[in-house]
Every structure is written in C-alpha cells, then in structure tokens.
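Q: Second attempt. The first request was missing the SMILES, so the protein and nicotinamide-adenine-dinucleotide are both included now.
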Amino acid sequence: MTGRLKDKVAVVIGSARGIGRAVAEAFGAEGARLALVDWNEDEGRRTAESFNRSNQECIFIKGDVSNRGDLLRAVDDVIGRFGRIDILCQNAGIFPQTLIEDISEDEWDRVLAVNLKGTFLSVQACLPVMRAQGYGRIVLTSSITGPRVGQPRNAHYSATKAGMNGFMRTAALELAPSGITINAVEPGNILTEGITGGGHDEAFFIAQQAAIPMGRLGTPQEVAHAYVFLASDEAAYITGQSIIVDGGQILPEGAVTP
Ligand SMILES: NC(=O)c1ccc[n+]([C@@H]2O[C@H](COP(=O)([O-])OP(=O)(O)OC[C@H]3O[C@@H](n4cnc5c(N)ncnc54)[C@H](O)[C@@H]3O)[C@@H](O)[C@H]2O)c1
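A: Got both inputs this time. The predicted holo structure:
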C-alpha cells in the first residue's frame, strides 16, 4: 500500500462486516484513521479491536444510519477524537427478499429508511464539518440492482439504490463549490455474510454465477479498491459518478456461455 489516504479521517457506516469492513480495512491500509459506525455493537467492536491489533487507529461508534440523533452523536464523537472528517462512506444497507405482493408497508418503510433516508441523513450530518474544512470525499454503496438491472424480490431494495444514485447527482452539484465530491460504487454479487446468510438457496448462487461472465461472485476486497480510489485525491475531479464492480454481470445481451 502507498499511503494514498495518509492522515485522512474516514467514517465508514455499516462496517462491522461484509463490504463495509473490507472498505474500512482498505482505507486503514492506505493510512486513514478510522471511525466504524454500525448498529451491531458486538460485531462492530470486534472488528475495531482487530484493526487496532494490526496497528490501525480505529474507534467504534454504535449507531443506526436511519436515526438522525445517532448520526449527529457519531459526528461529535469523531470530531472529539480526530478533529475532522475527510471521508464518509455510507455503506449500511439491508436487502430482505420479498415479492411485491408480500412486502408489508413496514418492510417497505424500513428498507427505505435504512438504505435511502440513511444516505441522506449521514451526508447531511457530515456536511457542516466538510463545508467548514472545504474538503470532503463521500462514497456511497449503491448496487447494480436498481440503477442498472432488476431482480425479483428486490423491488423496495432496487428503488432505494436507484434513489441513492439520484440523490448523489444532485448532492454533487450542491457540494462541488465546497470542495466536496460524492460518488458511488455499484457492486454486483459479492460474497458477504449478508448474502450467504440472507435466505438465498443454492439455486440463487448457481444462477448468479452463470450470469457473471467471470464465472464467480466477487470478494469484498475486490470491491474495496474502487472505494479507495474514489476516496483518494486521485479522484479529485470526479463527482456524481458511479463505478460498477460486477465481474461483467450487467453486460451480456443473452445467457452467458463459456
Ligand atoms: N453483497 C452484495 O452482493 C451487494 C451487492 C450490491 C450492493 N450491496 C450493498 O453493500 C452494502 C453492504 O452489503 P453487505 O453484503 O456487506 O451486507 P452485510 O449484511 O454483510 O453487512 C452490512 C453491514 O451494515 C450494518 N447495518 C445494516 N443496517 C444498519 C443500520 N441501520 N445502521 C447501521 N449499520 C447497519 C450491518 O450490521 C452490517 O455490519 C449494502 O448497502 C448492500 O445493499 C451488496
């Protein structure tokens, strides 16, 4: 690693495990000081402790991304400890698998509250600090599902991820004059605890694998490199854009044959 994020302070929301954990680890490996925010306190603390053991400066803050008060407290804690916030990664997301006729109003509201409102709230909470600094790098975890493709049982999820991209484009316009960029990563199918424990049967994984030209699901580490780039000064002139990291999944016109 080359210290591309040396001395930057990075807040990663939804980082106890999965993609967020890999992103935080990659930021730390590039020299960033880390604040992990997650509603899962046990797993979040364990992750932060493991980073500390490998000599990364890292704190854990318990918080629900859909709760404004939690986010404002988290920002206060990070400022108290590190004095600034250079990078915000909003990665927290939930993806219950439900057909449209079976989605309850509560489930719809919950998915929108975490994935979409959480994105708005976390960006809003960090804005005063980033505007005062005249500097910020915001990276959102979107998805190919919604912005690029559809997937049965993902109607609410797809709506949130497409919504995140729309939010990002307008935010990019509002934030550009303050030296703040906002971009997104759109992962394809990535092997995380959330996916393997998410109620998918074996047929799902076989079908996904068959639909991916590279013939396999991705790893969280493979996705994390895109976040490091967007969070770094190498991406200083990029805003309002997304990078698809999907092993070519959205490209085929028909079934993928070897
Ligand atoms: N894994 C994939 O294939 C894939 C593909 C595209 C997009 N994504 C997106 O990537 C992100 C991470 O997915 P993952 O597969 O790593 O999931 P995961 O379930 O393995 O990890 C998600 C993390 O976010 C935390 N979290 C969830 N809700 C939260 C909340 N309200 N407040 C704070 N923390 C919360 C969880 O505790 C967990 O630590 C999500 O936004 C997901 O939509 C995942």
